[in-house]
Amino acid sequence: MTTVSASSGEARRLTDGFHLVVAALKANDVDTIYGLVGIPITDLARVAQASGVRYLGFRQETSAGNAAAAAGFLTGRPGVCLTTSGPGFLNGLPALANATTNCFPMIQISGSSNRAMVDLQRGEYQDLDQLNAARPFAKAAYRIGRIEDIGRGVARAIRTAVSGRPGGVYLDIPAEVLGQAMDASAAAATIWRVTDPAPRQLPAPEAVERALDVLRQAQRPLIVLGKGAAYAKADREIGAFVEATGFPFLPMSMAKGLLPDSHPQSAAAARSLAIARADAVLLVGARLNWLLGHGQSPQWSSEAKFVQVDIAASELDSNQPIAAPLVGDIGSVLTALCDAVAARPVTAPAEWTSELADRKERNDEKMRQRLAENPHPMRFYNALGAIRDVLHENRGVYVVNEGANALDLARNVIDMELPRHRLDTGTWGVMGIGMGYAVAAAVETGKPVVAIEGDSAFGFSGMEIETICRYRLPVTVVILNNGGVYRGDEAPAGSDPAPTVLNARAHHERIAEAFGGKGYHVTTPCELRSALTEAIASRGPSIIDCELDPAAGVESGHLAGLNPKRAAT
Ligand code: ADP
């Protein structure tokens, strides 16, 4: 804040765009910014830090954006990512798009170059029409054109990011706006706190009755919980409905822990059977997209009727006819459903629940046998069995998970007991979210984080180990190293390594050591168990490189069927 003398001789306090952006964010409870500084936003980060907003500086903007998105999912408030003009902005876009796809509230604030120069394509420093470039990747994109609109722009970005279906919002602030000055008290009057940013949305009573009619007629009802249900923080209402009806439930990967995976009504261990046989399905914050086989046969019964709870009416009927739409926020809808079943109970037919229980028991036994094997070199299941044992002893740990086999197998082996404790590749199956999500989980919760990473997946954001070490975050990165994308044993067709091959002899733990973290290299489940126990207890940064059999793993993990078939060899 600067004091200047007005012509009248009276002292007048001035403020500028930098201070006003920070003031507008603070007025809306933004207490953390994830970013990477450079022209023109370096001073914005400095002003934020000086005014008590925590600033976390990354090594690449995509990770900063991923951290902001994960913060949004965990807190229900928009995570904020700060990027520079041009290339920095572009590096943030994959995270903005990923946040939008996953329905995570996030705001990417980016500085941009001089508008007059950019629009006439005069060859300005890092020139790019950022606003229009961002539009297809965001829920909304706004530009602030003058200092007086900073408060309005921030309020608009916050409201848009969290209301209705949450998503990523782009907020463009040209360099010249950051540098503009105005009278401080007039400026203070231009910022405001958004009232009730994500208002409740109640379902219509007839929609509730219609839904219950469908569920009452079902012989084989099933509840599918998605990450929208986890995000909604309606844990109590969801638990009450599941237990009042006795319906089996299936958690999508980021909804694991909403009810404990050990819950007797969890049908996770009988997933294929539950999906194939269900005749009425209540989708709660889950989309019938590729992750659910689009709700069609052969995975699903063609008889299945769908009841869908979603805040976005446009989601309904996107794949299958929705027999009973329930548009509203999950907390309100589930409260209405609970009230209705309290008045007129619904129960799950015993024949169905015992059919699922039998299948679960068989599959659980198969899993126990797989985990008990101890081959040399180690394979995915054996490493994951060790991780599972340690996490059972450390219930509050947050789990981040990415990779192909590392993702597909960990999702089944690592059970979750607490809600919103698992962050993974999500709707896009995107690689590179690992370190950004891990930073956010540690920063937003203060709890230890274990990132279970394929060696290839880790490479996409691996340099953020330096970030994790710089801030001394309680993050342990477990790298399931089979030396390749999918696996590391493919024979080359020429003199270079095969396209899928990385380096099974790599010592990733040395990357942590280079930046002052702790490194472990393990070759057996027993070594892994003791390294992970020690690493979590240390509450510091570490990498555990797990040497796996390069022949372990299958191409494309569980998604091999998505590869187009080659017509010729
Ligand atoms: P999953 O991948 O776990 O199946 P999705 O991301 O596909 O989950 O689906 C999440 C759904 O939840 C989205 O369609 C989104 O509109 C919806 N959603 C998000 N928040 C809420 C909320 N508070 N109330 C109702 N629906 C919500």
TrEMBL record:
GO biological process, one term: oxalate catabolic process
Cofactor or coenzyme needed: thiamine diphosphate
Pfam family of the protein (one): TPP_enzyme_C
SUPFAM superfamilies tied to this protein: DHS-like NAD/FAD-binding domain, Thiamin diphosphate-binding fold (THDP-binding)
Residue span, Thiamine pyrophosphate enzyme N-terminal TPP-binding domain: 17-131
A Gene Ontology molecular function term of the record: oxalyl-CoA decarboxylase activity
Keyword flag Hydrolase: no
Keywords: Lyase, Magnesium, Metal-binding, Thiamine pyrophosphate
Domain called Thiamine pyrophosphate enzyme TPP-binding: residue spans: 410-546
Entries under NCBIfam families matching the protein: oxalate_oxc, PRK09259.1
Protein name: Oxalyl-CoA decarboxylase
